[in-house]
Design a protein that fits this description.
With about 230 residues, this protein is of the alpha+beta class. The protein has 3 helices and 12 strands; from the N terminus they run H-E-E-E-E-E-E-H-E-E-E-E-E-H-E. It has a domain of about 140 residues. Strand 7 and strand 8 form a beta hairpin. The protein starts with 8 loop residues before the first helix and ends with a strand.
Length: about 230
Amino acid sequence: MPEKPRPSLLNELRQRSAAIREQRDAARLPEEKAQHAIEQALWRVFRWLEEAMGHLEVIQPQVRHRFRLDDFLTFDGLQVDSGFAVFRRHGLGVGDRLEHVEMFYELAAREPAVVKVKPLAASSVEERLRGAALQFQVDNEVDEFKAIRSTFFHVQPMIRASVQFKPHHSRRAIDVLLRNVDRFESVQLEFEPSRLDEAALEDLVRLVLGESDAFLHRAPLSLVNAKK
């Protein structure tokens, strides 16, 4: 009986190569889907916040938060003064992935604040003011011997705040870092991309306005950096 012809070596290599490619493609599929979900969520966040911040800048609504820095400074009666949303890519090409989405805004108080402290406390107070991203000027009160009796910090009535959405592809999550949103503090939450929907963004704006803190309970807390 004649022997069956063996398949050519090239055909054998083709089959083995195709099988390996299929395995690799199957392994990559969940990762690619996760990256796509993150990218879609970031674009959704940017477009929604871009419009929302544009409206808030026009309306300039009142904010119900009271910002306290230790026991020497309090700002209340605030209102949204300006705001906008931006995004940044990893590269310059249209197809490059987003590095982050961020919204910036400023809250205006009714009038500047003046903080008077003893000279020995001036360094600590200055450090706390800088940590809270507050703008200020410093004056010293001196006696007849030109020795400093008191230090005055004239603090501008403006609080700079931001919310950054940064992808973390290895965890398949989006980190949301809030700075000076409801207090002089940085807070970071970890979101699954699908949970950053319109309802979550509405809660974020309500948090900014001091109407609700529901946004802070929507995801696990991963970082708190207090400025108090």
